[in-house]
Write a structure and sequence with these properties.
6 helices, 2 domains, 133 residues, Multidrug-efflux Transporter Regulator, Chain: A, Domain 2
Length: 133
């Protein structure tokens, strides 16, 4: 049974807690392959990379339901390809906003103190894209 990993081994290799592994399983994002007679869940090695992906995706703001959808996609179905295109567009919008925020932060870090603005309105306007640097 060396081809299987216990929950603690999955957690350690994926750099997450055992509770995260359980939560990912509870949400249907991963699943154990079998159980030992003692009741311990056993996972295949590929679950480690899946758990790493889930952790990164959640960190980037993806909802668990969106991650589950990605795992369940049948790429031979053109409807799913359309769904992926929509997700890509959503990611591109988030990237655009993050770049805007980064540029605004650089603007203030490069000399303009937040305290120089009367009510930080300039800062907020730049962050939301109402004011161009």
């Amino acid at each position: 049974m060396s081809e299987y990993l216990k929950i603690g081994e999955v957690a350690k290799k994926a750099n997450i807690s055992v509770n995260c592994v359980r939560m990912y399983e509870e949400y249907g994002l991963i699943s154990h392959s079998t159980k030992m007679d003692s009741g311990f869940r056993l996972y295949k090695e590929d679950v480690v990379n899946k758990a790493k992906f889930i952790k990164k995706a959640i960190g980037l703001g993806f909802q668990k339901s969106e991650i589950k959808e990605l795992f369940e996609l049948d790429l031979s179905d053109t409807k799913n390809l359309d769904s992926l295109t929509l997700k890509e567009n959503k990611i591109n919008e988030k990237l655009k906003l993050l770049i805007q925020m980064r540029e605004a932060l650089h603007y203030f870090l490069d000399g303009k103190s937040l305290n120089e603005s009367k009510d930080n309105k300039d800062y907020i306007d730049i962050l939301v894209g109402e004011k161009v640097l």
